[in-house]
């Protein structure tokens, strides 16, 4: 059992130097919907540090991230420990929503705290309603280890109103005590849970403190409560949850049963006899297991208890997930009679953190071996315990390598947009650093509020070559072009104005978030026109146009401007193509001028027939007709794919 601690030719005038963002405007809405899905559930969030993962060293040695939370402002706080060259200290870092260090926190985004001359190991972190941050863990008192807490202001400085120096400890007796988790009650009292030595072996330990850091003497008379599971052997507390009724459930590992264990305390610190037929404690065996430990616990609004952790079988360890009724019995409405496992191949794995999403989905994070070392691992389950096949299709599980050695996720938090943040540690080959990953966790995070631009400088798979940025709203149509003639293709969006029924154009001169650099203007009807962009006069500047569905004639009417502003067409309007054709534009002959074309569905063959002009006027095709692509499955595209100066055709096939 592994218990992990806790231009001209080059620009193709200049339309097609961009990528898929541009191409979405070349076909009518009936063929290509304006919604933008830039990622799938379970994908790494590329707006976070460009690749969805980030590491930070706190000190010069090994640093271990353990707990994580997301503030209401979207900033992410990670707690853990850092080696200062002589010993370990509590460590805390705060990260902006984009993955950069928050320099308003302790000056550099990092903070460490020492309790004395020995090792001090930070575990979980919680945020109070006033914005102060509490970190719980273990501190050496000169003889043995005690529960320990430190409280910080939102700027990262110690809160000296908390136990006079911002630090507090609790000693259960003469042996080693270690705290693993911390929560704040609705009344502001602080609950810390972990393992307490009773003189012979270890028990569950819970300590409660008043908001000022003094022991709460109304809790078990001295602020300390313990519980043992089994007649002998160690019982380790690894996670705690508080129900709506104020009762506390602590979960962990019992050596007596070599399995999961949990206990429930009343608000006064006594064991709750409503659990397990009056005993208040429960040991849970797993079939075919040789050992198991519960690391995370959550109480649902209906008082059912969710527990996640690790289950070891011969030659294999897995994620484990179980749900219990309020009396401690397995919830038979949950998958497989109340419990399930998730394996990552025939390798070792284990869950360390859990979060319940607003739709009832359950997320576990931890580690999974890849055969050489460990990677971050995530599994998501439905509210009934089945694999969530829509998450990291098709099995609801994923792994993420970060460094060159072991990477282990120990904590997890949920953002307000449904994104999932996992925190832990990663080996960089020399030492260990704090590590975070962020995943798309809900459809809201896939661009329901904005368009995320991910740009490549090569037509190959890979990570974005520029920092991802948000520009545009969900129902906007993205366009891209060289709006100022500087040789760089940049972002823009076209938005339907519900008040006027026209297209509003918002164009940027650099690839970043921000306000439009070109004054916003209206051009074209959002009801009948397909937005287009191109260099219609060959001057090196991309400008606007529309292909209008003219129902009175049954043709497409092309209305093109040579400046990015409202006004009459600079090119005399003309009809070309049928209403059912897909408009396309490009420099088909390489003369530096963008001209028109259509892709027509041939009903007799089922293919796209391409009908292209070398001038922006009505007339016969200048390029001999040809068929390319299925009109049933393929979206027509056009671009200068090989930089030879002329635009050619392409397809996006829906598989």
Descriptive report:
- Mean pLDDT is 88; it is low at 1-38.
- This protein has 655 residues and is mainly β.
- The longest helix is centred in the middle third of the chain and has 5 residues, at 392-396.
- Helices cover 2% and strands 44% of the residues.
- It contains 3 helices and 44 strands.
- The protein is elongated.
- Strands 1-28-27-26 form a 4-stranded antiparallel β-sheet, with no helix packed on it. Strands 2-3-4-5 form a 4-stranded antiparallel β-sheet, with no helix packed on it.
- The chain folds into 2 domains: 15-38 and 448-653, no CATH class; 53-446, Methylamine Dehydrogenase, Chain H (7 Propeller).
- A hairpin with an 8-residue loop joins β43 and β44 (648-653).
Task: Briefly summarize what is shown.
With 655 residues, this protein is mostly beta strands. 2% of the residues lie in helices and 44% in strands.
Q: Could you tell me the mean pLDDT?
A: 88
Q: List how many beta strands DSSP finds.
A: 44
Basic shape:
elongated
Helix content: under 10%
Largest sheet: 4 strands, antiparallel
Pick out the low-confidence regions.
1-38
End-to-end C-alpha gap: 44 Å
Strand % is 35-45%
- Determine the number of helices (DSSP H or I, runs of at least 4 residues): 3
Strand order of the largest sheet: 1-28-27-26
Kindly provide the name of the CATH class of the largest domain.
Answer: Mainly Beta
Count of spatially separate domains = 2
Q: Which second-level CATH architecture of the largest domain applies?
A: 7 Propeller
Class inferred from helices and paired strands: mainly beta
Looking at this structure, what is the CATH superfamily of the largest domain? YVTN repeat-like/Quinoprotein amine dehydrogenase
CATH topology of the largest domain: Methylamine Dehydrogenase, Chain H
* Cα-based radius of gyration, to the nearest Å: 30 Å
């Amino acid at each position: 059992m592994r218990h992990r601690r806790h231009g001209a030719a080059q620009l193709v005038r200049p339309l097609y130097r961009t990528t898929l963002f541009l191409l979405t405007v070349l076909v009518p809405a009936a063929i290509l919907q304006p919604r933008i899905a830039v990622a799938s559930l379970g994908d790494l969030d590329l707006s976070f540090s460009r690749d969805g993962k980030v590491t930070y060293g706190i000190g010069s040695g090994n640093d271990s991230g353990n707990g994580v939370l997301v503030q209401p402002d979207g900033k992410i706080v990670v707690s853990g420990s850092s080696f200062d060259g002589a010993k370990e200290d509590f460590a805390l870092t705060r990260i902006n929503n984009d993955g950069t260090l928050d320099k308003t926190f302790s000056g550099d985004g990092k903070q460490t705290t020492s309790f004395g001359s020995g090792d001090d190991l930070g575990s979980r972190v919680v945020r109070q309603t006033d914005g102060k941050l509490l970190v719980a863990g273990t501190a050496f008192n000169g003889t043995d280890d005690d529960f320990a807490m430190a409280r910080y202001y939102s700027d990262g400085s110690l809160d000296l109103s908390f136990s006079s120096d911002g630090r507090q400890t609790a000693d259960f007796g003469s042996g080693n005590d270690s705290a693993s988790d911390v929560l704040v009650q609705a009344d502001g009292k602080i609950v810390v849970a972990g393992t307490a030595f009773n003189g012979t072996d270890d028990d569950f330990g819970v300590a409660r403190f008043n908001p000022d850091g003094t022991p709460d003497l109304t809790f078990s008379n001295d602020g300390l409560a313990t519980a043992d599971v089994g007649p002998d052997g160690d019982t380790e507390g690894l996670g705690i949850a508080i129900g709506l009724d104020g009762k506390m459930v602590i979960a962990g590992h019992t050596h007596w049963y070599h399995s999961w264990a949990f206990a429930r305390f009343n608000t006064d610190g006594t064991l709750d006899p409503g659990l397990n037929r009056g005993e208040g404690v429960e040991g849970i065996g797993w079939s075919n297991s040789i050992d198991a430990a519960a690391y995370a616990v959550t109480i649902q609004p209906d008082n059912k208890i969710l527990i996640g952790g690790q289950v070891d079988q011969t030659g294999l360890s897995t994620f484990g997930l179980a749900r219990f009724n309020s009396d401690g019995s397995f919830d038979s409405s949950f998958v497989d009679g109340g419990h399930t496992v998730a394996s990552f191949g025939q390798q070792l794995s284990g869950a360390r953190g859990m979060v319940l999403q607003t739709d009832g989905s359950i997320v576990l994070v931890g580690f999974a071996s890849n055969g050489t070392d460990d990677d971050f691992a995530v599994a998501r389950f439905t509210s009934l315990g089945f694999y969530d096949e829509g998450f990291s299709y098709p099995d609801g599980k994923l792994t993420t390598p970060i460094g060159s050695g072991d990477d282990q996720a120990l904590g997890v938090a949920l953002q307000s947009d449904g994104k999932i943040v996992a925190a832990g540690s990663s080996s960089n080959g020399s030492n260990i650093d704090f590590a975070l990953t962020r995943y798309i966790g809900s459809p809201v995070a896939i661009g329901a509020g904005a368009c995320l631009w991910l740009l490549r400088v090569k037509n190959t798979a890979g990570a974005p070559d520029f920092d991802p940025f948000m520009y545009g709203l969900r129902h906007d149509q993205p366009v891209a072009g060289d709006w100022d003639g500087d040789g760089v293709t940049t972002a823009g969006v076209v938005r339907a104005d519900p008040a006027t029924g026209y297209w509003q154009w918002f164009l940027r001169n650099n690839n970043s978030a921000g306000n439009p650099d070109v004054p916003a203007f209206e051009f074209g009807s959002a009801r009948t026109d397909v937005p287009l962009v191109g260099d219609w006069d060959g001057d090196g500047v991309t400008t606007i146009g529309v292909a209008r569905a003219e129902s009175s004639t049954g043709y497409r009417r092309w209305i093109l401007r040579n400046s990015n502003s409202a006004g009459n067409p600079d090119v005399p309007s003309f009809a070309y193509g049928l209403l059912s054709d897909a408009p396309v534009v490009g420099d088909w002959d390489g003369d530096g001028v963008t001209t028109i074309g259509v892709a027509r569905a041939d009903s007799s063959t089922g293919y796209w027939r391409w009908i292209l002009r070398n001038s922006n006027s009505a007339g016969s095709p200048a390029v001999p007709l040809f068929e390319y692509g299925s009109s049933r499955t393929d979206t027509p595209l056009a671009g200068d794919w090989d930089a030879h100066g002329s635009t050619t055709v392409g397809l996006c096939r829906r598989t």
